[in-house]
Amino acid sequence: MEYLNTLYSGMMIPCFVLTAKTIVLNGSCRPAASRATPGIHRPQPLRDVPPVRAKIVVRATDDVISGSPPNERGDDSHFFNREVHVFRVGFGYDAHRLVEGRSLILGGVKIPHHLGLAGHSDADVLIHAMMDAILGALAKGDIGQHFPNTEPAYKDMDSMVLLERVMKWVHSDGYRINQLDTTIVAEKPGLSPFVEAMKQRLSKTLAIRMDQISIKATTTEEMGFCGRQEGIAAYAIVSLVAESVSS
Asked: Does 87-242 carry CATH code 2.60.120.10?
């Protein structure tokens, strides 16, 4: 953000320029000698000059951030009063136990393995972490609130279907996915050969490009429940932007 001073009819009007945003500043800018900024020369203000109505617009995108001018004490800390959230971030985590007799499904892809993840649905730990991250970004709680494991309708359900429902809430709130970064923690099996297939499936449901999705796989060097192959965990962080912001 860059602080500028504009000379208007013999008075200095403070202006803020934030690149890659549209900023509309409306308000009265009344000259005051006590509001001098160090290092910036200000002409001596006139005593009987009425307040100046200033509207400054710096346009780069379609989103709008509104604000009010600094107060008379020179405190600019509350200059911006955001009315529209143009950017949101959410974090998600999930873990499931590995058991026999279950399929191992991660990111909507069936992974060949002699163990699968136990859970009420298909126990896709990666998608569950992603859903939690998205719900967190929307401030809508967690997946347990919306898809409880006591509900028979969700028994063995494809987690991709649940993700589709969450994405409807994203769009109804006026947002879209900007970037998704995830990490799967599993000692075995090796997941690298399946990452591209996961990204392909997820990109369709999330309505984003594959290069906006990051899926990493790591181990814990045989430490903890993942290292002992008792379970698999996943972490996800997602950023949402308002749909009005051009991609």
From this structure: no
Q: Residue 224 half-sphere exposure, CB side, CA atoms within 13 Å?
A: 12
Domain residue spans of the chain:
2-67, 87-242
Residue 139 CB contacts under 8 Å (≥ 6 apart), including other chains: none
Token pair belonging to 124:
């896709």
Q: What are phi and psi of 170, to 5 degrees?
A: -60, -50
Whole-model pTM: value is 0.67
Give the span between the Cα atoms of 57 and 53, in whole angstroms. Answer: 13
| Per-residue pLDDT reduced to its tens digit, 39-87 | 555 555 545 555 544 443 434 444 444 444 444 444 444 434 444 478 8
* DSSP per-residue letters across 39-105: T---PPPPTTPPPEEEEEEE-SSS-EEEE----TT---TT-B---S--EEEEEEEEEEEEETTS-EE
DSSP run (H or E) holding 197? helix 195-206
